[in-house]
Design a protein that fits this description.
This is Rrna (Guanine-n(2)-)-methyltransferase. The structure is a single chain. With about 180 residues, the protein is α/β, with parallel strands linked by helices. Helices cover about 30% and strands about 30% of the residues.
């Protein structure tokens, strides 16, 4: 795993030890950013299931101003910190050890996010519930892009609430779905 493009391009990323976390492959990461960017002129991102932190670090490398990364596993938090340290831009990242639901409550009152990454464990698909909670907490900016990485079984809806499907692509067992918040 590495940072594919941008300011931190080519730097290697550590994976979370063990089998509890499934890292996004470089091929899928590059495809995601080609669909939503590939580069940004600022903004804030949120990853509620950050794992190694690869998606958020890639986003900051490509121009996102600030990334908030959430994971509840201690091993993931240690890996995220190590990967952020490689960027030498630690002030652009905020790491929270918490469940997704508790983090949403904790983030209430902060400015909304422009890009939101969702790559929860495949067995625990809570993307629609998480998005509803984020909207209720006013943490989703108008026009925000939502990146959902799931398996073939997830069957995310074409549209729900104020989220409109922009793109859906299959990469083997991985499905990447991009929504835009129309609120």
């Amino acid at each position: 795993m590495r940072i594919v493009s941008g300011e931190f391009r080519g730097r290697p990323l550590k994976a979370v030890p063990g089998t509890a976390t499934r890292p996004t492959t470089d091929k899928v990461k590059e495809a995601i950013f080609n669909m939503i960017g590939p580069y940004f002129t600022g903004g804030r991102s949120l990853d509620l299931y950050a794992g190694s932190g690869g998606l958020s670090i890639e986003g900051v490398s490509r121009g996102i101003d600030e990334a908030v990364l959430v994971d509840r596993q201690y091993a993931a938090i240690k890996t995220i910190q190590a990967n952020i340290d490689l960027t030498k831009a630690t002030e652009r990242f905020k790491v929270i050890k918490s469940s997704a639901q508790a983090a949403i409550q904790r983030l209430k009152g902060q400015p909304p996010f422009d890009v939101l990454y969702f790559d929860p464990p495949y067995a625990k698909q809570t993307i629609t519930a998480d998005l509803e909670a984020l909207v209720a907490a006013q943490l989703v900016a108008s026009g925000a892009l939502i990146v959902a990485e799931t398996d073939q079984e997830a069957n995310l809806p074409e549209q729900f609430g104020q989220f409109k499907l922009l793109k859906r692509r299959d990469y083997g067992i991985t499905v990447v779905t991009i929504y835009q918040f129309m609120g």
